């Protein structure tokens, strides 16, 4: 008997995503993808509250998702909605959740950082070929997850408060950007990593896999230029140099950079550069999937067992 269509919705600090899938041969097959750069973390005020304007931006995106759920005839019981760092942090998260409920008809599950790391790893394993011990780095809008695993076995996971949207607000608002902005970001990454830095080095890895928009934006840019899509320190240093040549925030002279990704590009590059130097990374490849694929996988298994 065929399982019905289902949808995994992830509300990140930078992007909101929705995957629509059906199960084919025991595995989720994605039928449609929807995404919007909501940049929720931009709206966090000094009082820890999410601004009304940015909250509205998020709710409007959920309205679009609701229309797509109706279009694909997906029942509420076949939808999973998961939120991450910004909704973990803001003081008015309950207000956002209560206003979102009538729009989606499904409650939002605000997951902890450790649970997020676990789902990211599951999503990566399900979609990314490779063997041996892997270090997975997912740079989000307001948090970054680090996971070390061997195959299905998870050896280490942590979620730390640094991301491309929060770092943009902290270090990359004064134009033109300068070398010291990148230096300040590196100092902060080192501070936030804390004991995790030594633990990651102790465990070691054979390969490094990166998930999220920051890594995706670099890979898209390299592909556009016809270059190898493996990210190296040399690639990142070159991109930093290109960023520093620009006087304005649009970065429109950077060949291959999608305009939608430009606002958080410098901050994302700064976090990546800091991690390459602090952890001694040689190269990093893009993951086939991460959080949303992990949520989709769990949802498919739940629906499968119910049938």
TrEMBL record:
Claim: Hydrolase is one of the keywords in the record: yes
Keyword list, A-Z: Hydrolase
Leader peptide range in chain numbering: none
A GO molecular-function descriptor: guanosine-5'-triphosphate,3'-diphosphate diphosphatase activity
InterPro entries, alphabetized: ATPase_NBD, GppA/Ppx_hydrolase, Ppx_GppA_N
Domain Ppx/GppA phosphatase N-terminal: start-end pairs: 20-300
Listed EC numbers: 3.6.1.40
PANTHER family per UniProt: EXOPOLYPHOSPHATASE, RETROGRADE REGULATION PROTEIN 2
Protein name: Guanosine-5'-triphosphate,3'-diphosphate pyrophosphatase
The species this protein was found in: Shewanella khirikhana
């Amino acid at each position: 008997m065929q399982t019905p269509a289902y949808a995994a919705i992830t509300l990140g600090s930078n992007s909101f995503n929705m995957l629509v899938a059906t199960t084919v041969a025991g595995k989720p097959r994605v039928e449609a993808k929807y995404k919007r750069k909501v940049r929720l973390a931009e709206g966090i005020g000094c009082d820890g509250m999410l601004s009304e304007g940015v909250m509205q931006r998020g709710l409007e995106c959920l309205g679009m998702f609701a229309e797509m759920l109706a279009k694909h005839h997906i029942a509420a019981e076949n939808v999973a909605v998961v939120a991450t760092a910004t909704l973990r942090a803001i003081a008015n998260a309950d207000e956002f959740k209560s206003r979102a409920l009538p729009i989606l008809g499904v409650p939002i599950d605000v997951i902890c950082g450790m649970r997020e790391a676990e789902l990211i790893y599951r999503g990566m394993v399900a979609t990314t070929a490779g063997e041996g011990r892997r270090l997975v780095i997912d740079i989000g809008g307001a948090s970054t997850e680090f996971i070390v695993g061997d195959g299905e076995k998870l050896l280490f996971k942590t979620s730390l408060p640094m991301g491309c949207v929060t770092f943009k607000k902290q270090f990359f608002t004064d134009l033109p950007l300068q070398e010291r902005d990148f230096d300040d970001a590196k100092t902060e990454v080192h501070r936030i990593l804390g004991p995790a830095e030594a633990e990651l080095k102790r465990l070691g890895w054979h390969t490094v896999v990166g998930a999220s928009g920051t890594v995706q934006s670099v890979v898209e840019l390299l592909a556009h230029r016809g270059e190898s899509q493996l990210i190296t320190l040399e690639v990142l240093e070159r991109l930093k140099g290109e960023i520093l040549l620009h006087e304005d925030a649009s970065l429109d002279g950077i060949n291959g950079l999608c305009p939608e990704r430009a606002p958080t590009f410098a901050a994302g590059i700064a976090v990546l550069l800091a991690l390459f130097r602090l952890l001694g990374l040689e190269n990093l490849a893009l993951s086939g999937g991460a959080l949303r694929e992990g949520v989709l996988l769990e949802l498919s298994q739940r629906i499968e067992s119910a049938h």
